[in-house]
Amino acid sequence: MPFATTPFHWHKPILTHPARTPIVQREKRWALGNYGATGVMTSRRLRLRIIRFYAAVFLVCAGNPMKVLVAVKRVVDYNVKIRVKSDQTGVETANVKMSMNPFDEIAVEQAVRMREAGTAEEVIAVSMGPSQSQETIRTALAMGADRGILLETDDELQPLAVAKLMRAIVDKENPNLVIVGKQAIDDDSNQTGQMLAALLGWAQGTFASELKFNGETVNCTREVDGGLETLALKMPAVITTDLRLNEPRYASLPNIMKAKKKPIDTMSPSDLGVDTAPRLTTLNVTEPAGREAGVIVDSVAELVEKLKNEAKVI
Ligand code: AMP
Fold it and tell me: Closest Cα partner for 222 from 214, 237, 232?
């Protein structure tokens, strides 16, 4: 400290090292206001203190940017016609186009928009599965995520295992928000987000169609049977995305190139000490029954007659 002062001597600082005290600093001290000879703070200095206090409160409440974790699963592309394996043990994935789960694209878009708006400072994309899941992370990075984490395993990961692994990553990364899809279109489980929130003891906003951030709170609008419901969640929280939350962007070629240089941390579930053993057994997987071809009727009367006598639905 170049100054050695007491409140009674603010008007006249005692300089311990005059040669090392920058003039600017001295002038700044004087410009901040003064204490009177009695040591009572003048109104000018008080005003400045109040302004600084409110500025700090504003920065903490409004400007504190968040770290956001987004889960991205590699699934069979939604345009591909699903084929069941001949032994009925699952769905054919060999030589099939794979992509990011569509609800996870929405999750990435939400997180990237938050970073662009200054609400988030870092977006981390996490995927779990075979080494090819790295491509899914690269897609997230090309959309704008900052870095990726791959939990590489060839074992089957059921929603509980995914939720436990996510919790381990949350413990390492300390994010303020985790965004996952409402469901993966391969297993249609719709469980991971809810299980993760329960394991962490965090608030959850499922099937989010709108998010509004307000300091430490996020208002999550969800589509429910009766209309729209809005929940105020105190962060940290888990959000699961619904279709209407946003329309995900396409990654541009320059961003795809840039994504190649972004870091991806690879580890295995055992590195995190998580037991991923399946708890559910799939008995068999079958295709839905084929639909019969429809017929074109000539009149409303004929339609009613067929619905009554053939389909027997009215
Ligand atoms: P589910 O509960 O299986 O329907 O999945 C819901 C969401 O959890 C997905 O949309 C993903 O965001 C996330 N998730 C599930 N499995 C994985 C995985 N293997 N890797 C990354 N995220 C996953």
Answer: 232
pLDDT tens string 103-137: 999 999 999 999 999 999 999 999 999 999 999 99
Pairwise pLDDT comparison (28 vs 62), residue with the higher score: 62
Residue-wise pLDDT tens digits, 183-219: 999 989 999 999 999 999 999 999 999 999 999 999 9
Within 8 A by CB and 6+ apart from 268, the residues are 151, 152, 153
Q: Could you tell me the pTM of the whole model?
A: 0.77
Task: For the beta carbon of residue 139, count every other beta carbon within 10 angstroms.
Answer: 23
Phi and psi based region of residue 196 (left: phi greater than 0; alpha: psi -120 to 50; beta: remaining)? alpha
Alpha-carbon torsion 90, 91, 92, 97, what sign? negative
Residue type (1 letter), 196: L
CA of 165 to the centre of ligand 1 (A): 11
Residue closest by Cα to atom 6 of ligand 1:
183
Pairing of strands 3-4, 14-15: antiparallel
CA of 239 to the centre of ligand 1 (A): 12
